[in-house]
Hints:
Low-confidence stretches: 4-8
Strand content: under 5%
Largest sheet: none
Mean pLDDT: 86
Helix content: 55-70%
Number of helices: 11
Shape: flat
Distance between the termini: 53 Å
Number of strands: 0
Order of helices and strands: HHHHHHHHHHH
Amino acid sequence: MVEIGTQQRAPLSRKRVLDTAVALADEGGVDALSMRRIAQALGVVPMALYKHVAHKNELLDGMIDALVGEIDPPSADADWKTAVRRRVLSARRMLLRHPWAPAVIEARMKARATPTPAVLAYLDSMIGIFRAGGFPVDLVHHAMHVMGSRLLGFSQEVFEDRTDRAPDPDAPPPEEMAARYPHLTELARAVAHDEESVVGSGCDDQAEFEFALDLTLDGLERLLRTA
């Protein structure tokens, strides 16, 4: 729980508002977050928050920037491939601490004309790692596209494969599905099950993420050699 009493003596600030909002979202999810709940946790009236965040969208943007601040800085003593890998996996560890964050990041990135300042700084530094590694600008452009959301520690999947979803009443019986879609059925039966997976119940989430990350970095390395 977010403690109220321990925070009442400290003066209200934007950082305190954002830190409290992140803690509340970690506890109950971002959908349950409200200015009233944040104010209650801080021991202030809701109107006091608006001196630091003008509205809910600004609050969410500030929360994203706070989380990006948790990502490890670039490794000064590593080659470009190691540095990118370390940083992406640091971003992933951050998101695993805050499971609500990927959906908020994706929604706000689509809603804004430009990313938030911290996201811009993070992406700029990642481009700097590629450039320092010898990548020409056009190859960096391709790299940023192919990395996509993986740069921030998550992957956008084609579809969800979860066991907690209600069965589709219009879906054919399993035997008919197997007959219609034999390759999907074969794959579904072959993969290991991980019910806590973000990617899906049929996948080892971390293993799949690192597999795709390493495959991407290996491909970029080959392209760099011929650039």
